[in-house]
Amino acid sequence: MNIFCRLFGHTWTHRTENQKVSWNAGKDQAQLHITSDAQPRFWLECQRCSERNEAPTRDQVRRINN
Ligand SMILES: [Zn+2]
Q1: Disulfide check for 60: which of 7, 14, 48, 56 has CB 3.0–4.6 Å away?
Q2: What 3-state DSSP class applies to 32?
Q3: Which domain covers residue 37, as residue numbers?
Q4: How many domains does the chain have?
Q5: 25 alpha carbon to ligand 1 midpoint, in Å?
Q6: C-alpha distances out from residue 52 to 9, 26, 46, Å
Q7: 3-class secondary structure, 37
Q8: Does pTM surpass 0.85?
Q9: pLDDT, tens digit only, all 66 positions of the chain
Q10: Rounded distance, CA 28 to CA 42, Å?
Q11: Ligand 1 centre and the CA of 49: distance in Å?
Q12: What is the rounded radius of gyration, in angstroms, for the C-alpha atoms of the chain?
């Protein structure tokens, strides 16, 4: 693991196979909606060490958006 990740935690970014897809929270803020018909693979990846989170929770995704 990258030393900075060890100290500060990972710097997650959105990754998806379809770059045109955008994620956004619905009015209720309780669910993420995907603005695409397809169901592309989606994951989080650390900018520094490239560690992947293949199944991020809604809270993890929301933390990045903020
Ligand atoms: Zn990292």
Answers
A1: 56
A2: strand
A3: 3-65
A4: 1
A5: 25
A6: 13, 25, 7
A7: coil
A8: no
A9: 789 999 999 999 988 876 565 666 666 666 666 665 556 678 999 999 999 999 999 888 888 865
A10: 22
A11: 4
A12: 13
